[in-house]
Amino acid sequence: MSRPDRQTRWIALLVWALMALLPAITLPAQAATAEPPQRVALVIGNGAYRTAPLANPSNDARAMSDALEKLGFRVIRLQDATQQQMFEAVRSFGDALKGGVGLFYYAGHGVQVKGRNYLVPVDARIEREDELPYKAVDIGLVIEKMEGARNPLNIVILDACRNNPFAAGSRSVGGGGLAQMDAPSGSLIAFATAPGATAEDGRGSNGLYTSHLLRQMATPGLPIEEVFKRTRVAVKQASSGRQIPWESTSLEGSFSFAPGSGADAGTASSNGNSQARLSEQELWAILVDTGTTSAYRAYLDKYPQGAHAQEARTRLTAVTDAASAGSRTTAAPPGTQPTVTRATGGFSFSAAEAELDRRSGEGRIATARQAMTGMPCPSERRQARVRVQVDEPWRVGSGGQAALQPSLATAVSAYLREAGFEVGGSGTATYTVRGTVSTQSRFNPAVGLHEVSVSSVLGLTGPRGVALADQINRDDSYAGEDTRGAQAEILQRQAAEFAARAVRAICAP
Question: What number does CATH give the domain 34-260?
Answer without folding.
Answer: 3.40.50.1460
